Amino acid sequence: QVQLVESGGGLGEAGGSLRLSCTYSPRDFAINIMGWYYQGPGKERELVAEIADGGMANYADSVKGRFASSGKNAKDPVYLEMNTLKPEDTGVYYCRAYTEVCKAEFWGQGTQVTVAS
């Protein structure tokens, strides 16, 4: 089992920046893909970014050029750098881990991001 905890959400300004963090444990768990998902009011969760072990990254079209995920390493949290924020970025952001070992996914509880107009 993997425990994920997001932090760094809060109130941002249009055109500004926020940095979200995802910490996970145990750190030696075999996670193959780390990802960030977004859920707006009344909507299903959507992919924001995911980074595979080999470094290959996928980003939603809406955040390309604005957001960047750090992936994972042995000691640091996984970051989502959010730049040039827009009001439509408002919502809950979730950290996701996937392991190929048992083909299982794990989710954090989410962190709220609100971007003022």
Description of the structure:
With 117 residues, this protein is mainly beta. 0% of the residues lie in helices and 52% in strands. The chain contains no helices and eleven strands. The strands form two sheets. Strands 2, 4, 5, 6, 9, 10 and 11 form a seven-stranded mixed beta sheet that branches. A hairpin with a 6-residue loop joins strand 4 and strand 5 (46-52). The relative contact order is 0.32. The mean pLDDT is 94.
- The H-and-E topology, N to C, reads as EEEEEEEEEEE
**Fraction in beta strands:** over 45%
Secondary structure: number of strands: 11
Give me the secondary-structure category. Answer: mainly beta
For the sheet with most strands, the description reads: 7 strands, mixed
Q: What is the rounded Rg?
A: 14 Å
- Unreliably modeled segments: none
C-alpha end-to-end distance: 40 Å
- Mean pLDDT metric: 94
Number of helices: 0
Q: Tell me, briefly, the overall form.
A: globular
Helix content: under 10%
